[in-house]
Amino acid sequence: MQSMGCCFRNGSTVPQLCWDPALIISQIMLMQAIYYSSLGLWLALVDSLVQSNPSLDQIFSYEVLGFATSPGRLSTMAFILNALTCAVGLLYFIRRGKQCLDFTATVHFFHLLGCWIYNGYFPTALTWWLVHTVCTALMAVIGEYLCMRTELKEIPLNSAPKSSV
């Protein structure tokens, strides 16, 4: 019996983590899809507020993120809101507090590779690194908090009402 990366070994009734490469790869792909689709939605919302034209530069360009201009601040805000959205994605699709940092680092590593390919050179903008470091930390910590809260919920053993003795 398997469920979200857990299996029961040697007749044990306690679920244990299993090595399931297909599940891990599909979870990575799902988190990438959540990352880019929610980022696209946040950027579209921000663009609609300031009547700006959407562009791939907002997602991949190093120069767009920043604090000096209004579009830069709004794009930065969209990235931060995206980190919060992806933390909820970790809760619903990864479900393990121990794996939140792994999946967060993987999502941001692939984003770094995508930016590197898009721009043709490694990122050197300090604001890009600052924004993505903060977003990585937010996504991992909030995702882990949400997952741990769910993991530590009390498991009801008896559905009968409690009686006071």
TrEMBL record:
One Pfam family matching this protein: SYS1
Membrane-protein topology: Multi-pass membrane protein
Entry GO CC: cytosol; Golgi membrane; trans-Golgi network
Subcellular location: Golgi apparatus membrane
Transmembrane parts of this sequence: 33-52, 72-94, 101-121
Gene Ontology biological process terms from the UniProt entry: Golgi to endosome transport; Golgi to plasma membrane protein transport; protein localization to Golgi apparatus
Entry keyword Transport: yes
Record key words, sorted: Golgi apparatus, Membrane, Protein transport, Transmembrane, Transmembrane helix, Transport
Function, in words: Involved in protein trafficking. May serve as a receptor for ARFRP1.
Family statement: Belongs to the SYS1 family.
Record's subunit section: Interacts with ARFRP1.
PANTHER family referenced in this protein's UniProt entry, alphabetically: PROTEIN SYS1 HOMOLOG, SYS1
Name under which the protein is recorded: Protein SYS1 homolog
Gene from which the chain derives: SYS1
